[in-house]
Amino acid sequence: NTATAVHFHDQQPPAASLTLRDELLQGLRAAPKRSSPKFFYDLRGSELFDRICVQPEYYPTRTEEAILRDAADDIADVVGKDATLIELGSGASRKVRLLLEAVRPTSYLGIDISRDFLLDSTRRLAADYPWLDVHAACADFSQRMTMPSGLACDHPVAFFPGSSIGNFAPEEAECFLRGLHSLLPSGSGLLIGVDLIKDEAILNAAYNDAAGVTAAFNLNLLERLRHEFEGDLDPATFSHQAFYNESRSRIEMHLVSDIDQTIRVSGEVFHFDQGETLHTENSYKYSVEGFRALAARAGFESRALWTDPDKLFSIHYLER
Ligand code: AVJ
């Protein structure tokens, strides 16, 4: 019965589509070589990300969840009644559970690029909250999106937790928010988690956990290249690298080639010098003021803000 409880909207071509492949190859041809972080999230990558979230060094998830738990009633007050919660990059749909009882939205739409993961987690959500109208859309929200039909949407409130916005460069983040602004009617809300600029040692530790889960997550990209994109390469010849780039307020993740080598992906040849990297992710950090200014440039007004006592993480409520 739970299997039919989720209204599913497929808004994306299948995983190893031509466009994804083209995007991947384009990044590998570039100098320096790069890959969009969205390529991390195959089923295994999504599972590894979930394990990152419970590592002792990875403070963002724990801290954001504590803020949500503590502020749930305040958040319900600013969000108001009869909301449609739209979670962008819903993943395991775990964080939204902290809000559902307090906010009592009429419907929920989870949007994620990882189809099987999305279906799994929204089915569980529908089973656990029988009063909630649950929708799932498999889509790449970094591209242009449309609202799925058949979803009542009088008071849409986008929920973008986890500082996923940090994967965009500031110009792209502004552009992304502008896209949301044009998608949502006036009066809509945006509840967004943003990681804060802080002591470099805390940041570096969070992306270099002792158990090696972040390393496995980064290296899993190479497994995905092998299995989904006809990659001919040895993942053991690459190493995980993550560091805080202070001048750009971002964590950078790279896969470093330990040797001088030639690899093949989708029939195309790519050379790596020893020490050359594939830049796999940026995770931008913001000050409260810096993020407010960015959101304002995209047409969103700051309505409320919550942080933890150590000022590690922030949750903004913005209104369009
Ligand atoms: C999902 C982009 C917020 O940047 O902290 C975690 C991804 N990468 N560890 C982050 C991530 C390595 C995460 N975001």
TrEMBL record:
InterPro entries named among the record's database cross-references: EgtD, EgtD_Methyltrsf_superfamily, MeTrfase_dom, MeTrfase_EgtD-like, SAM-dependent_MTases_sf
Presence of keyword Methyltransferase: yes
PANTHER family for the chain: ERGOTHIONEINE BIOSYNTHESIS PROTEIN 1
Pfam families named among the record's database cross-references: Methyltransf_33 (PF10017)
Domain Histidine-specific methyltransferase SAM-dependent: 21-319
Protein name as annotated: Dimethylhistidine N-methyltransferase
GO molecular function: methyltransferase activity
Alphabetic keyword roster: Methyltransferase, Transferase
Keyword check for Transferase: yes
GO terms under biological process: methylation
